[in-house]
Structure formats: C-alpha cells, structure tokens
Amino acid sequence: MFIGYYNYTVVLTYLGLSSAVVGMVEAMKHDYKTALICLLICGVCDMFDGMIARTSKKRSEDAKSFGVQIDSLCDVICFGVFPVVIGYSLCPMNWFTVLCSVFFVLAAVIRLAFFNVQEINRVENNEGKREYYLGLPVTASALIMPAVALVTSLNAVNWAYLYPVCLALTGIANITRFKVKKPYLAGIVFLLIIGALIFYLTFRFGGNITCMKPGISV
User: Fold this and answer.
1) pLDDT (tens digit, 9 = 90+) per residue, 29-71?
2) How far apart are the first and last CA of the chain?
3) CA distances (Å), 192 to each of 75, 184, 188, in order?
4) Which of 98, 156, 167, 202 has the fewest CB atoms lying closer than 10 Å?
5) What residue spans of 2-140 are helical by DSSP H?
6) pTM, rounded to two decimals
7) What domains lie within the chain, and their CATH numbers?
8) What count of Cα atoms within 13 Å lies in the side-chain half-sphere of residue 196?
9) How many CB atoms lie within 10 A of CB 69?
C-alpha cells in the first residue's frame, strides 16, 4: 500500500527524527531546555538504531540499503538542520551567524554523502566491520551543541557568537580527514555517561538559557 520498507529496525531512526521536529518547534518558541533535551534524545536514538538494525537477519538487500539511506537522511535533519534552528532562535542573526549555519549544514550533508559512498564500497568489497570513521561524526553535535548552549547561559561574558563559532568548528571537524575510532562497548558507555551529565545539566540549568537577539525577551 505504501512505498518504503517498514520493520522494527527503523523505529529508533524515526523516533529520533520525530524528536528533532518537536525540538525545532520548541526552539522557535524559545524553549531551549526542551529543544536541547530533544537533541540529546536524537543522539541516543542514533547510537542504538544501528545496533538494532544489525540484529535483523531477515532483511533483503534493498531493505538494508534503505536503512542506510534513511539513517543518513534523518541525520541531516537531526544533526545538521536541528542545531542550526536552535542557533537561529538563540543567537543574533547577521551575516556571520548565517555563514556559520550554512557551512555547518553543508559540511553535514557532504560528510553523510561521503559516508554512504564509503559504506556501499565496504559492503561490496566484504571489508568486515568498520573500525574507524574519517572526520568527526555528525552525531557529535548532539553532545557538543547542548554543552555550548549551556555555556551561553553564563552571564559573566557576552557569549552571543560562541554558538555559531562552534557550529563552524564542528563543521570543519566533520569534513577533515582524521581518524576517529568507532565506539564499541567501552566507548558507548563513556559517551552515555557524558550524555547523561549533559542531560542533567540541561534539565537543571537549561531554563537559564535566553534568546540573545536584540529586542527579544523570553
């Protein structure tokens, strides 16, 4: 009846995308605490959706390819567009912020397209499990940007341009050729601990984050 491939292996991917959409709506309403929590949820969903997909032994090759493509398409929204929407709502909007935002999204798209090509080649050549990523995975923005947004809530310094600067730096790291070891059990546990800490800080202090656009109070 409907086009596409529907099975339990894509449920977390779709939940992550749904969380991103909700988070973008909340960011535009200047509810940064909820928006950042949604971004963290996107990161958790992405961390485990691949594990769930690998448990399926009955998927066709087309279904597996669909899973790879849908994961990257959702990642563009969750970890490319979503952080930029938060920045648009949070920061002064001028040529610098726009330039950093555009570059960040372009870097995310380029990296994900490159990853898809490499993944297709790896499968076709039967190279086994991936041990390293080239460049910083786009999902890292799920930890980086909430931490940066929390720093902007500190009133000692004017942090108005910290968020767009970190968008640009993260984008550069996304497309720079350096090896990042793929996390397995120990790495995943470490990332979950860091994520839990940022989640707690966001839940505790996220309400202190305010819009830095001139003339707007929330």
Assistant:
1) 999 999 999 999 999 999 888 777 677 667 777 877 888 889 9
2) 46
3) 19, 12, 6
4) 156
5) 11-28, 32-54, 61-75, 82-90, 95-124
6) 0.91
7) 8-208 (1.20.120)
8) 6
9) 12
